[in-house]
Amino acid sequence: MTPALSLQQRVFAWVEWLKTFRYIKFGLVGASGTVVNLVVLRLGHEYVFQSIEGNGGKPYASLALAIAVATLNNFTWNRLWTWSDRVQSGDMDLSGTAPSGTLQKLAGQLGKYAMASWFGIALQYGLTLWLAHWLHYMLANVIAIVVASVSNYLANDRWTFRKR
């Protein structure tokens, strides 16, 4: 066994151990959402909404789009991974198709997720725009995401994906 392989195995074992902690999973999903948010924000501000936001303007429309796409990303991964033990396992029948009512349950859960996250979303949006007066809008957005993540975790852990 080479030392590099041993180190690689130790790193993978450490990551597997960390995944047992729900907040760590939430943080990793949040990190992926941050990447999605920043990519959509950049593309929206620099290309999609450039004609209405301009180079020196505030990223109002692109920030709203970035938050919406990142919220869908985070809901999906939190449902599939972070709180997978709390999501009902009866979402598919034996044939692999969704039983009636599953789409409604999923939409309801997405609605709960969005409502539970509304404060964090509003906090992120407002804080980003406020901090953008003094900082680059991308850095302002990262700071706002970190601040809002704690309220999002607590609300979703206690309401959206609560133990039944």
Tags for this entry?
about 160 residues, mainly alpha, 6 helices, globular
- N to C succession of SSEs: HHHHHH
What does the average pLDDT come to? Answer: 83
Q: How many strand units?
A: 0
Which structural category do the helix and sheet elements fall into?
mainly alpha
Largest sheet, described in full? none
Give me the number of helical elements: 6
What general form does the structure show?
globular
Name the poorly predicted regions. Answer: 90-96
Report the end-to-end length measured between terminal Cα atoms.
Answer: 46 Å
Helix content: over 70%
What would you note in describing this structure?
- The protein is 76% helix and 0% strand.
- The protein is built from 6 helices and no strands.
- The chain has helices at 3-18, 22-48, 50-53, 60-82, 102-131, 137-160.
- The chain is globular, with a radius of gyration of 19 Å.
- The N and C termini lie far apart (46 Å).
List the helices and strands and how they pair.
Elements: H1 3-18, H2 22-48, H3 50-53, H4 60-82, H5 102-131, H6 137-160
Short synopsis of the structure:
The model is unreliable at 90-96 (pLDDT under 50).
